[in-house]
Specification:
Layout: H1 3-13, E1 25-29, E2 34-38, E3 43-51, E4 54-64, E5 68-76, H2 85-100, E6 103-112, E7 115-124, E8 127-136, E9 139-148, H3 154-162, E10 165-166, H4 177-180, E11 183-186, E12 188-189, E13 193-198, E14 204-210, E15 213-223, E16 229-236, H5 246-261, E17 264-273, E18 276-284, E19 294-303, E20 306-315, H6 322-328, E21 332-333, E22 344-345, E23 349-351
Antiparallel strand pairs: 1-2, 2-10, 3-4, 4-5, 5-9, 6-7, 7-8, 8-9, 11-13, 11-23, 12-22, 13-21, 14-15, 15-16, 16-20, 17-18, 18-19, 19-20
Helix pairs in contact: 1-2
Length: about 350
């Protein structure tokens, strides 16, 4: 699977993480056939890829943590393994290394519930990737943690992975795939805006220190079947922080994003929202992965003392695609006749690109 683009996309959205991660709580997937302790409700998405063995579909469960991204990936292998499990597991590691562009630091053979597997650590541009994966029948389970901001805490990954348990799957792994692969209007209550979004993203809260106190940043993301990530965030701008002009504000915010991503600013242009200044920027991301020219595109809107960001992460060749252009252009503030801000999310309406 192209895990590289999935992890890179979510890590890019999570790049401003701060203190305040919720305590891990049990999460169970009946069709995935597992349970694990995660620091929040995971966003679920699918990714599919044609292989010589047939169509491979991955079901991905992800939570953005304080300074890490926690994931579980389930895959039903469509072909025959032919009894050579060691060679198969080596192939999974090779695919993981190629798709993430990571440098393999450690690996060891393991057994999980009597099933053969591997535990590996790779160095990525955005942090350290820990993965424990194993084969049970024809299903591959991957327990993954990307530790960011220079963190090196293998004991945290071991604790996370140790909470994983398998169970007898109920239903098919692809249950819900059609709904989570659809685009629809999404309006987070409390956000005061609406936009087009893929899947059914779950709100994930980060608490960011600032000179005026801790700022609550509300994050959402979805992933299409190609593994491209679409995200958005919003937070109130502390009034105690002096910001002379919108231009200065955007410059500071964009510089922080480029530095955190370890990327290179390729393009920046001024845009407007109802006469108010905003920006769109494109950042080339570091690392070589199983897709060309990894790219981060962001639109920033500072409106009514609130900062909104729409983010796309994927191959540069897709930046001008209808899917990406429509997503980035879909942002709309609520009008006077819309319901007031509340906690939670409204039902989605299906739309098609």
């Amino acid at each position: 699977m192209n895990l590289g683009i999935v992890l890179l996309g979510v890590a890019a959205i999570a790049q401003n993480g701060g203190p305040g991660e919720p305590a891990p709580a049990p999460f169970t997937s009946k069709d995935g056939g597992f349970s694990i302790a995660m620091p929040g409700t995971p966003t679920i998405s699918f990714q599919q890829k044609e292989t010589p063995a047939g169509m491979v579909i991955n079901k991905i469960f992800q939570v953005i943590g304080e300074d890490k991204v926690n994931s579980v990936i389930c895959t039903d292998y469509p072909g025959e393994i032919n009894g050579d499990q060691e060679a198969f597991l080596n192939g999974v590691l090779q695919g993981l290394s190629q798709s993430t562009g990571g440098q393999l630091l450690t690996q060891k053979n393991i057994q999980v519930e009597g099933c053969p597997g591997r535990q590996v650590m790779l160095k990525l541009p955005l942090g350290l990737l820990h993965s424990r994966y194993f084969l049970k029948g024809k299903r591959i389970y991957q327990i993954v943690q990307l530790q960011m901001k220079g963190k090196d805490a293998p004991e945290e990954f071991d604790q996370y992975a140790a909470s994983f348990r398998t169970s007898e799957p109920v239903g098919k792994l692809t249950d819900g795939m059609d709904g989570l692969s659809n685009w629809g209007e999404f309006r987070p209550k409390g956000g005061g805006f609406r936009l087009k979004m893929i899947g059914n993203p779950k709100e994930q809260l980060q608490k960011i220190p600032s000179p005026a106190g801790v700022v609550d940043v509300h994050l959402f993301h979805g992933i299409n079947l190609k593994g491209e990530t679409f995200g958005f965030s919003y937070h109130d701008v502390p009034k105690a922080v002096p910001i002379p002009t919108p231009e200065n504000f955007y410059t500071q915010a964009l510089a922080g994003s480029v530095a955190n991503l370890k990327g290179k600013l390729v393009r920046r242009k001024a845009i407007e929202y109802e006469g108010q200044p905003a920006i769109e920027a494109e950042v080339a991301l570091p690392g070589k992965m199983a897709f060309p020219d990894p790219t981060y595109v962001v639109r920033m809107y500072w409106l009514k003392d609130r900062m909104y960001q729409l983010i796309y992460v994927g191959p540069k060749a897709s930046v001008e695609s209808k899917e990406v252009v429509d997503f980035l252009g879909s942002f709309q503030l609520d009008g006077p006749g819309d319901p007031p801000r509340e906690k939670g999310s409204t039902p989605r309406k299906k739309t098609a690109f």
